[in-house]
Amino acid sequence: MTTPPVRARDLGFLLHDWLDLEALLAYPHFRDHSVETVDAMLDIAGRVAADTFLTHYKAADSQEPHLVEGQVRILPAIHQALAAFAEVGMFAAPFDAEVGGLQLPQLAYSAAMAQFMAANVATSAYPMLTTGNAKLLVRYANEALVKACALPEIEGRYFGTMCLSEPQAGSSLADIATRAVPDGDDGLGARYRLFGNKMWISGGDQDASENIIHLVLAKMPGPDGKLIPGTQGISLFVVPKVLVPGSDYAGQRNDVVVAGLNHKMGYRGTANCLLNFGEGAHHRPGGLAGAVGYRVGGVGQGLPIMFQMMNSARISVGLGAAMLGYRGYRLAVDYARDRRQGRPIGGRGGPPIAIIDHPDVRRLLLAQKAYAEGALALVLYCARLVDEELHGPAEGRDEAASLLGLLTPVAKTWPSEWGLAANDLAIQVHGGYGYTRDFDVEQLYRDNRLNPIHEGTTGVQGLDLMGRKTLKDDGASLTILRHRVTATVERARRLPALADFAHVLDVTWARIGALVGHLKAAGDDVASLAQATSFLSAFGHAVVAWQWLDQAVVAGSLAVTDDPDETAFRAGKLAACRFFFETEVPRVDVWLGIVGRRSDLTQTFDPAGF
């Protein structure tokens, strides 16, 4: 058996010591679970991840998906891994029992998925998208569509996708041109024929599942026969690859054609497709043109509904980015312990020492630890907020939802940017070897380079945070966050080793609050939004600083132990917190200064100057 890709103590500290999973399991919704059952599930996840996902990590990178007579073929080892994933109930884990799920808390499920993503993020993309797809259907689709499409996904027999982007539109969904024409009704509900092209569709085709359920954004024609402009005209449709039971055309191949595969820098095991809907030369159900689809939700409600899956996917992207950074960090630690080179500073004789004994290498490792473990903590914190919002005491649900909304762009972006930075440093620790394909850190970097791009680029997330979540918000969510930060500050002040950091954190958040007040008073949102990415950088670092201090308070408050491994573990947490405050928090003032100056350079500079 291969060693699990995530250290059990790392997950154990975050779940049990810091995020208090036991208190979460006291919610009535999770009454069938206990700490023991969750730990058993995590142990199973670690073993399956190590034995079936990690083992083909390199092969999936070198043997990419390919087209054979219009069908995408993926590495057989991916089939086997996903079958094992389904066999142990991982597709079903986060769903309610009434739809065949295991009703596991999102926090526990995210911890399980962390192990699969650390082992093989490309293979993990298939179940990540499938569970998000099924969750949306369970919440918004009619009973017939849930039975025909979502339940097989929960069983792991069907896989799912999200089809948003188009070649000409990219992230500007208001500009999509895929159209949906009414085509009557059948046993699955209101039926439509779809025509258009979708780009960058992860899992858009593959040969590992019985069927593929596409969730497609498209526009319907208005009374004048023209597509309704803007986002108001967008509706959401279920478009199966093979028409499902309940359809008038059950069993027929739908008019969805793979027009090509995108050849990526990383994530190569995930088939990424250009799909044509309603333009195939064959496979026309009923002899009619167009891909058969069924509307989910009301007319014009496609984007608000789809945002549920998009926001869930953004947090999942953050988790994947964190775990790529984490695995690179652990590989760098192992390499630094084994690699012997050079002598101590000031020393001239004696044998070479392990490079981990060089201060600069320790600096690189501490930075990776701060980034990777900080990113994982952030995403798991958000997973707990999901559980609080959906299943916690009624009086706390709105607060959890508000805070989750504020933190979602941070949870997507901060791990994506700084997990990638950790991978860069992992290569540096390996030296020239890290730049070769013989060591995984090269591939981990390439895989992680996607995460600042997909599910909304860093710039898009910055606009979301500064625009919708800050400038246009009434301040309630920021107030909730500030109260939680203050609670951490008060606890940290009682611990001498952390008191100075508590003061720094308090001052940092006061500066953020003052800047937000200044920007709102200025009233020039255009000028402020031009600096949205710098604001996101500052805000994200301040959030992670808060969470590192909160973890340090917990680590410093645990009962004294004689176990040297446990003592070293806790010392590592405290050192990472210190490193973050000494090295990373000073960046926040620089970013806030950029935002506060509201420079007009990027708005007024003539592009001809490039």
Structure in a nutshell:
By secondary structure, this protein is of the alpha+beta class. It contains 20 helices and ten strands.
Question: What this model shows, in words?
Answer:
The protein has helices at residues 8-18, 21-24, 35-53, 57-62, 76-87, 106-119, 121-140, 143-155, 302-338, 359-391, 394-430, 440-448, 458-471, 476-492, 499-522, 525-529, 532-557, 564-584, 586-597, 601-604; strands at residues 66-68, 71-73, 158-163, 179-186, 189-202, 211-219, 234-240, 256-261, 272-277, 291-296. The chain is an alpha+beta fold. It has 4 domains: 8-155, Acyl-CoA dehydrogenase/oxidase, N-terminal domain (Butyryl-Coa Dehydrogenase, subunit A, domain 1, Orthogonal Bundle); 159-300, Butyryl-CoA Dehydrogenase, subunit A, domain 2, CATH 2.40.110; 301-452, Butyryl-CoA Dehydrogenase, subunit A, domain 3, CATH 1.20.140.10; 457-610. Strands 3, 4, 5, 6, 7, 8, 9 and 10 form an 8-stranded mixed sheet that branches. Strands 1-2 form a two-stranded antiparallel sheet. Strand 1 and strand 2 form a beta hairpin. Helix 3 runs parallel beside helix 6.
